[in-house]
Amino acid sequence: MFWMQHHPQQQQQQQQQHTCSSRAAQLPSAAAATAAAAAATAAAATAAAAAAGPPDIVNKEAAAATAATETATAAADTAAAEAEEIEKAAEAAAAATESAAAEAAAANAAATETAAAAAATQAETAAEEEAEAGEKAATAATEAAAAAAEAAAAKATATETTAAAAATQAETAAAEAAEAETKAATAATEAADAAAAEAAAAKAAATEAAAAAAATQTETAAAAAAEAAAKEAEAAAAKAAEQEETAAAEAATQAEAAAAAAAAADLPSRSPTTSFDKAAQQQQQQQQQQQQQQQKQDEEQSSSSSSMKQQQQQQHQQQYKKQQQQQQQLLHQR
User: Fold this and answer.
1) Residues 243, 298: contact at Cβ < 8 Å?
2) Residues 182, 187, 191, 194: what is their CA dihedral angle, to the nearest 10 degrees?
3) Against a cut of 0.90, is the pTM above it?
4) CB-based contacts of 10-14 (< 8 A; 24+ apart in sequence)
5) Nearby residues of 247 by Cβ (< 8 Å), 6 or more positions away
6) 3-class secondary-structure state, position 54
7) Which pLDDT value is given to residue 164?
8) Quick one: pLDDT at residue 157?
9) What gap in Å lies between CA 192 and CA 318, rounded to an integer?
10) Of 67, 80, 90, 63, which Cα lies nearest the Cα of 29?
11) Contact criterion met (CB below 8 Å) for 80 and 11
12) Highest mean pLDDT among 168-177, 261-270, 312-321
């Protein structure tokens, strides 16, 4: 393609040779077609003459057909000769084409070699430039590494100096902290001892004050309790005496009523009345004994609490009511 673009005359020659070759290939077929057409025309004329009828007419037509056949044959011969000449021209054109192709291939190879040489030269130049740039980059990198190493060494030296100063400061701070801790521990111990002594003294004072207050409260409470117990005992004794007097009066009245009722009743036998009287007397004696015992218990338990005394009084009243119920039942039976 490179050679064809730079040699347009040789390209035109190749196109003309291709056109001649195409025409040479087409001419034999055209001559054959003309001969075939002439033979067909002659055959048709002969057939027409045979079908015409009279000999004179047939002979004329046959002669005409023969002349047409000869003309066609001559044209076919001429076409064949022309075809041979065209074939020779085509062979010459093919030979010229081959020669031009060889020359074009040689020129193309030379151009290719020239382009390859130019490309190789450019590649060598680029490689040399790249190598030079690589050397410059390597030199710059080496210089940068050296500068970085120097900076790192300086930084390491500064770090060591800073670390030494920090270690010294840490040791000084640790010593000061230890001393402050010792002082604080001593002060804390002294403060704790003083606080413990003050707490012990305050506790002792509080204990004495609490003991005195408790003693005072105990004495006051004992006096108040004794006074209240004496008042309750007096009230309970007076109430018990009054209840006993009332119960004795009621029992005497009931006994008199029962005796009068028994004397007035007209019974066939005295034995039931006697047994009833004995039972009434025994019950009255039991009541008196219970009242005396209750009175003794009230006197003995006069120092007890008011709630216990109320319970005893309630029990005494319940017993008195029970006795009255029993007397009423006996009177009812009688």
Assistant:
1) no
2) 100
3) no
4) 10/100, 10/103, 10/104, 13/96, 13/97, 13/100, 14/97, 14/100, 14/101
5) 287, 291, 320
6) coil
7) 83
8) 86
9) 70
10) 80
11) no
12) 168-177
Write out pLDDT tens, residues 213-243: 766 776 776 677 778 777 877 887 788 778 7
Residue 241, CA distances (Å) to 244, 294, 316 in order: 5, 10, 12
Say which residues have a Cβ less than 8 Å from residue 146's Cβ, sequence separation at least 6: none
Decide if 26 contacts 2 (C-beta within 8 A): no
Rounded-to-integer distance, Cα 307 and Cα 143, Å: 115
Tokens matching residue 219? 């004495």
Q: Which tokens hold the place of 247?
A: 């119960």
How confident is the model over 83-114, as pLDDT tens digits? Answer: 888 888 878 888 888 887 888 888 888 888 88
Going by C-beta distance under 8 Å and a sequence separation of 6 or more, which residues neighbour residue 43? none
- List Cα–Cα distances, 318 to 160, 291, 314, 324, in angstroms: 109, 12, 6, 10
Looking up tokens 């707490």 gives 199
Given a cut of 70, is residue 152 above it in pLDDT?
yes
DSSP summary character for residue 265: S
Q: What is the pLDDT of residue 253?
A: 78
